[in-house]
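Progress report, Aim 2. The chain analyzed during this reporting quarter is listed below.
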Amino acid sequence: MQTIKLENISEAGLQLAINELREEMFDTPECDFTIAKMLSHCGHFDTAERHLDEMLLKWGSSPDVIELTDKGYAMVDAMQATAKAQQGVVSSQPVAGVASLNKTRDMAVA
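Predicted structure tokens for the chain:
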């Protein structure tokens, strides 16, 4: 019996999606921006910001790249603020069955 953690499945799926984007959009600043956007949608805000930093190093400081990175940083900040606000709302409300959710976090797959 093999145990699979949900985090591993989502990380593997995220990596597959990033690889697909790179194949479809090739190696462009727009591809890097889209990857950062997807990372931030998945809650990987620090990784998204690092990706934008690397984008600047990789593509230089042309006006198009600066515009994309500025837009990307603003997007990450906005999504992070929204996630924190939602987390505050969720954590302030009592949730029934949290203990049972923690116990079933790992799924056994035959």
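Strands lie at 2-5, 106-109. The longest strand covers residues 2-5. These observations will guide the mutagenesis work planned for the next reporting period.
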